[in-house]
Specification:
With 167 residues, the chain is an alpha+beta fold. It has helices at residues 12-33, 59-64, 145-152, and strands spanning 44-49, 68-73, 78-82, 86-93, 96-103, 107-112, 117-120, 158-160. The chain is globular, with a radius of gyration of 16 Å. The two termini are 16 Å apart.
Length: 167
């Protein structure tokens, strides 16, 4: 593409982002259909904007993660429910149970380190610069979670879509 390429009247970037977020929904839906048991060594890191419309997390977590949060679905999670718009799940943070509801539009990254698969999305919260924050530390890092998290950012098999809008 060149600088002379006209702006598209078709919102390709939005269509692709929506389709890739549907992958997350399908994967989570398959987990629910399989009895909420993760097959093999699969586990998921899901990053989302905490201030996005429709996100529901307890106040103490919103205070700790005012911009973005990463959760891990691995060993200790419950009540995973998936709809066309998003998912909800129960997790424990420092031994305190919490219910989170996350619309797919709020997700900025989805990684399955067991198979080096990842998706990154454009943020849907308008021009928010991410703030420094601590890791989520939900209580499920048992079978190599921290080590897997370190390898998850190596860029292997990560799909990033950026159509580079003209400004």
């Amino acid at each position: 593409m060149t600088e002379d390429t006209p702006d598209s009247l078709i919102p390709y970037d939005e269509i692709v982002q929506e389709a890739l977020r549907a992958v997350v929904g399908r994967v989570l839906g398959e987990i629910v259909a399989g009895g909420s048991e993760l097959p093999g060594t699969h586990h998921f890191y899901i990053t989302f904007k905490t201030e996005a419309t429709g996100v529901s997390i307890p106040p103490h977590l919103r205070e700790r993660f005012p911009d973005e949060m990463t959760i891990v679905l691995q060993n200790k999670f419950w009540d995973l429910e998936v709809t066309d718009e998003g998912f909800s799940v129960g997790l424990s943070f420092n031994q305190i149970p919490a219910k989170l509801s996350v619309p797919f539009a709020a997700i900025t990254a989805f990684v399955d380190p067991a198979v080096d698969f990842g998706l990154q999305f454009q943020a849907t919260v308008a021009d928010m610069a991410p703030e420094e924050h601590e890791d989520a530390e939900n209580d499920l890092i048992e079978s190599g979670g921290e080590e897997a998290a370190e390898g998850a950012d190596d860029g292997s098999n990560v799909v990033t879509v950026d159509f580079g809008r003209k400004k």
